[in-house]
Write a structure and sequence with these properties.
The chain has about 290 residues and is an alpha/beta fold. The protein contains 10 helices and 10 strands. Strands 1-4-5-6-7-8-9-10 form an 8-stranded mixed sheet. A two-stranded antiparallel ribbon has the order 2-3. The chain starts with 16 loop residues before the first strand and ends in a 13-residue tail after the last helix.
Length: about 290
């Protein structure tokens, strides 16, 4: 198998075979994201992808899960994706689930029939970075999508049967837009009602435009306790109707939490309140945090 540059996958794909079908991210303008600054976006040649699948078949023949990388591999055309997925099923008879990163436009540009066909071929989970439910925050960080577009994309994918795992970033609103970021993120998640929700904590990385903004005083990162207050406010404003599996156990987070919303909403808020009372010494130390 051959990989180029930085390759990442969601924590829940830790046991999956990672297949790089694109290089980088087709948007790659988010001011906070350092992940694909090392390579321009390109569609990986199909013959190379199929060669990798063949090699993986010889080594990982019992594979049950596959994750398609890089940053928003759903940008690939429908027929291109079907060719790859059919090759995966031929190589891995036990294959049960295929996951993929996507942005809103990737989903919205697929037809309902195309999404249903992909789901029927076991593309059963899409990871989408909401980042914030605030349009002002999304504009400032150059996300390239509005909250409404992302909500519509989630509805469209879920209507086809595909589960959505959405990610939001604590701290992305800075000090000045922190409250708006938290409240509107809770509202957007409520409107989406995704199957999975992960809250990560913003870590400003040198080399990103956001780092330059912070260095020049145009952006101020909230402190650890302010991040917890944001998380509390987001959860407080989430009103989902069906079970949403919630996690804040990413390495970037100061306080790992897990639960199901709405069932565990009060318990999660009480745990955050307890951490706020105990102060920073109760939180994950800076040296142990990571992207």
């Amino acid at each position: 198998m051959h990989y180029q540059g930085t390759v990442i996958r969601p924590p829940s794909e830790a046991q999956s075979y990672i297949l790089q079908v694109t290089y980088g991210c087709s948007h790659n303008k988010c001011t906070f994201c350092p992940t694909y600054l090392d390579k321009p976006f390109r569609v990986r040649p199909l013959d190379q992808v199929l060669d990798d699948i063949n090699m993986a078949h010889q080594v990982y023949g019992n594979t049950r899960r596959v994750f398609l990388a890089d940053g928003n591999a759903l940008v690939l055309g429908f027929k291109h994706l079907v060719t790859i997925i059919d090759a995966l099923h031929s190589a891995f008879p036990l294959l049960q689930r295929i996951g993929i990163y996507a942005n809103a436009q990737d989903i919205l540009q697929k037809t309902d029939t195309e999404l249903k066909t992909l789901f029927d071929r076991d593309l059963s989970i899409i990871y989408l970075g909401l980042e914030s439910g605030s349009n002002a925050v999304l504009k400032r960080v150059k996300k390239g999508a509005t909250p409404r577009q992302m909500i519509d994309a989630v509805h469209k994918a879920q209507a086809a049967g595909i589960k959505i795992s959405t990610i939001a970033l604590l701290g992305l609103g800075g000090i000045d837009l922190g409250e708006e970021h938290a409240i509107e993120t809770g509202k957007a998640i409520s409107a989406m009602n995704p199957r999975y929700l992960s809250l990560l904590t913003l870590m400003v990385v040198p080399g990103t435009p956001l780092y330059e903004e912070m260095e020049h005083g145009a952006f101020t990162l909230p402190g650890p306790l302010d991040m917890l207050k944001e998380m509390r406010m987001i959860i407080e404003h989430i009103d989902v109707k069906h079970g949403c599996i919630f996690r804040s156990n990413h390495a970037s987070n100061y306080l790992p939490l897990a639960g199901t919303l709405p069932k565990d909403k009060e318990k999660l808020i009480n745990t955050i309140d307890q951490a706020l009372r105990r102060g920073e010494s109760y939180l994950r130390p800076e040296w142990s945090r990571g992207l």
